[in-house]
Amino acid sequence: MNLNDLITQTSEWLKGTGAHSDIVISSRIRLARNLIGATFNSRASEEKRNEIISLLRPVIKSTDSLRNSLWIDIDKLSRLDLQFLIERHLISHELAGGEGARAAIISEMETISLMINEEDHLRLQTIQSGLALMDAWRIVNKVEGELADRIGFAFSQEFGYLTACPTNVGTGMRASVMLHLPSLVITRQIEKISQAVAKIGFVVRGFYGEGTEPIGDYFQISNQVTLGQSEEEIISNIEQIIHQIIGHEENARQFLLTRRKKQIEDRVFRAYGTLAYARRIDSNEAIKLLSTLRLGIELDFIKNLDHHILNELLIAIQPAHLQKLNGKALTAVERDIKRAELIRKKIKK
Amino acid sequence: MNLNDLITQTSEWLKGTGAHSDIVISSRIRLARNLIGATFNSRASEEKRNEIISLLRPVIKSTDSLRNSLWIDIDKLSRLDLQFLIERHLISHELAGGEGARAAIISEMETISLMINEEDHLRLQTIQSGLALMDAWRIVNKVEGELADRIGFAFSQEFGYLTACPTNVGTGMRASVMLHLPSLVITRQIEKISQAVAKIGFVVRGFYGEGTEPIGDYFQISNQVTLGQSEEEIISNIEQIIHQIIGHEENARQFLLTRRKKQIEDRVFRAYGTLAYARRIDSNEAIKLLSTLRLGIELDFIKNLDHHILNELLIAIQPAHLQKLNGKALTAVERDIKRAELIRKKIKK
C-alpha cells in the first residue's frame, strides 16, 4: 500500500454503522505520549528529532496492530499530499505545517493512525464509526500497550503522562464525537446546547477540525480535561453528554416530522434536486446540502440512498481529494465542476 | 363544451410551434369595435348594455368562425372562474371587474375570443403560436368581416373605427408579441432595449398582462399607435422591431454558449433539479425557474423535454388554474404544494 492507494478506499470510520449512526458519524480517541529521557519536540534539535523517528520506526513495525501499516515521511510530501492527509483526518494541520523530521503511520483501512514529532513525540488515534468511544479506547490502548512494552513513555506518579502542552497532561487523552445535528440547527436550539456543553468543560468544533466553524450541521464534541480523571471516567462523562444531545436531536426530528413535515420535505428534496443536477458547486454549499440530504435519509423522505455515501462525500469533495482523484492540480472553478460531477455520480446510484 | 372543459385542454397558442418559437411564445391581434348608433358603454344604461348582448348573441352564433363557440355570461361567474379566464388570456381584468351585463365568447381550442361590453361593445382577439401576426390578423379580420356583414360598426371617414378610448381610434387594433428573452436579461441588455422600443412608440409589458412587471424573462411588446396607419403597416412595423429583438437575443445566446457555457449549464440544471424535486413552490420562483429551463431547452442542454410543456405550465401553475384542476379552493400554501406536484409530473415525463 502507498499513499496514492488511499484515494480508492473509504476510511473504515465513514461506513455509517455502529450505535446511533443516524446522528453520530464517528468516535475518536487520541493519546499523546512522549519518550522517557528524550527532549520534548519544542526544544529538540533536528538530530534529536531524527533519533526519535529512528527509534520508533522498528518498534512500530514490530507491533501486531501496525505490522502492515503505511509509513509516510511527512517532510518529503508535497503540499497536496499533506492537505490530502489532513482532509482524511489522518494527520493534523500542526504536523503538516511543522518543520524537520516528522512521520505518519496509517493502518489498513485507516482505523489507526500515528503521528511522530507533532507537538508530542507520539500521537496515536483511532476513529470508529458511530458512537463507540469505549471500543475506540480499547483499540488505541492496545496499540499504546504494544508500544509501551517496547519503549518507555514519560510518566509521573503525580501528574500521569507528561505532554508538551499542559492541557494534555494526565491521561494524554482526547475523546471526541462527531455529531450531525440538523434538527437542533433548524429549530434554533443548537446555540443554547453548545453553550451548555462548553460550560461543563467540553469543546465544540466543526467537522473540519480545530479552529473551524461548524458547517452543514456537523459538530465535534471533545473533552477539555485530561487530568484527575481516569480514561474510563472521561469517556463515561462525554458519553453521558452525547446521549443527552442525541435525545435533543431526536426530539427535534420528531417535532419537525409532526409540525413541519411539508416544509422539511421540500427542503430535503430541493437539496437532492440541486445536488443531483448542479454542474458546479462550492464546498460550503455542498456540505450544507449534503447535510440536509442526510437528514432526509434519516427522516425516511429519501429512500434507496444510504447515509454512508454522504459520509464518504464529506471527505471526498474536499480540494485535495478532488485533485488526487483527478490526478492533477485543479483551479477553484475546476474543482467546483469536478465536485458537482462526483456528487451527481454518487447520489444518483 | 362548457367552461370547466377548458381546464383539460391546452390553448392552441401554447403549442410552441410557428416561426421563431424558440424565442417568440405567441402573437396576438385584438380589435376594438362599437355598434353604429349605440351609446358607448361608459355612458350606457344597463338596459342598453343588455340590448347589445341580445343583439350580438344570434349574430355571433350565425358566423362560420364562432358557430361552435362557448358563450359565457360573465356577470354570472364566480370570482374563481373569472380569474381562470383572465389567467388563460381569454378575458381582461377590466371585463372581469366590470359591472352589469357582459359576455365572453370562446372558439374551439381558444383560438378566437370575444368580449362584449368591456370598454367597447366588442373586442375580438386571436392568439397564435410563434411569430404569426399576419396570420393572426387574417383570422381576426375574417371574424370581424363576418360580423360587419351582419351589423354595422361605428366608423368615421376621418378617424376610422370609433372607440371608447381615443388611444384605440383608427384601426382599433392592438398587435402584441410575447417574447422569451432570458439571454438579454442575463447579459443586462434588456433595459436598454426596452427603453429603445418604448421610445419609438411600442409598449413593453410582462407575461401576465397590463400593469404587470415582467417576471421570468417574458416580455410582451405591442403597438401604441392605432391611428394614421393601416393594419398591415402597424404589423409590418412591429414585426421589424421583433425581428431586431430576436436577433439580439440570438446573439446573446451565442455569447452565453461560447463565453459562459459552464455557468449557464449549471444554472439550467439547477433550475431543472429544483423544479423536478421541490415539494412546494410559489408562482414567482416557478416562473423564473421555468424560464431558465426553457433557455436550457433552446440551448440544447436539456433533451427530451419540449418547450410546449413549459408554455403550458406558465398558464397551468396560476392560482385559479390550480384550484380548477384540483376541483376545490386552495390556500396559498396548498397551491404551492399542488404547483410543485404539477410541475414535477409534467417535466419528469
UniProtKB/TrEMBL annotation, chains A, B:
ATP-binding listed as a keyword = yes
Q: Which UniProt keywords apply?
A: Allosteric enzyme, ATP-binding, Kinase, Nucleotide-binding, Transferase
Q: Which Pfam families match?
A: ATP-gua_Ptrans
Query: Example GO molecular function term?
Result: creatine kinase activity
Q: Which reaction does it catalyse?
A: L-arginyl-[protein] + ATP = N(omega)-phospho-L-arginyl-[protein] + ADP + H(+)
| Motif RDXXRA motif of the pArg binding pocket involved in allosteric regulation: where in chain | 335-340
The record's function comment reads: Catalyzes the specific phosphorylation of arginine residues in proteins.
Family membership, please give it.
Belongs to the ATP:guanido phosphotransferase family.
List the protein's name: Protein-arginine kinase
Q: What is the lineage of its organism?
A: Bacteria
